Inverse folding.
């Protein structure tokens, strides 16, 4: 993965795989779209590398453990 949020998302997908056919088909369609759009996939990866881990930041702020970097 290209980001910590992506790693968490992948872990969640592996830990609890989809079981509803429509959901599986929707995911496969999305994956197929990104496979066909090579340039889009490349630019999205570059953007995700530069994006802050918002989930982590929000969690730290809610838990009142945020610091100046958050």
């Amino acid at each position: 993965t290209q980001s910590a949020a992506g790693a968490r998302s992948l872990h969640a997908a592996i830990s609890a795989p989809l079981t509803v056919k429509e959901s599986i088909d929707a995911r496969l369609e999305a994956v197929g779209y990104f496979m066909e759009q090579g340039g889009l996939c490349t630019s999205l990866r570059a953007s995700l590398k530069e994006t802050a881990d918002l989930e982590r930041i929000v969690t730290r702020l809610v838990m009142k453990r945020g610091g100046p970097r958050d």
User: Anything to note?
Assistant: The mean pLDDT is 89. The CA atoms of residues 13 and 32 lie 17 Å apart. The chain is about 70% helix and 0% strand. Helices lie at 4-15, 21-36, 38-50, 54-62.
